Amino acid sequence: MSNKSILQRANAAVSQGDNEGFLSNCHDDLIWNFVGDQILRGKEAVREYMRENYKSPPKFSVTHMIEEGDFVTAIGSIMIKVDEGFENLHTYCDVWRFQDGKMIELMAFVNKSKE
If DSSP codes are grouped into helix, strand and coil, which group holds residue 80? Predict the structure, then answer.
């Protein structure tokens, strides 16, 4: 399976509220770097982040996905429900690094949309 296909499968899982399905595609030593904000180290830290921030499944719209070697870059937007009836739209460019068929590192460049 290509790295791009793995990322698509993982994103489909989290879009359905299946965070564990997403995490099954991740390496135990996963690093999520929200550039300029915070760095999460390890699958448990990411699990906790998802539990706190994905109270409802996020809605992804991927406009471009580019695979080269061990890297997949995804460009798009994500809608995250923050409170009852209130959602935040973010645009992003995610650069994922893969190791042994698992996602091991994310560099996420995220901006809150003004729309």
Answer: strand
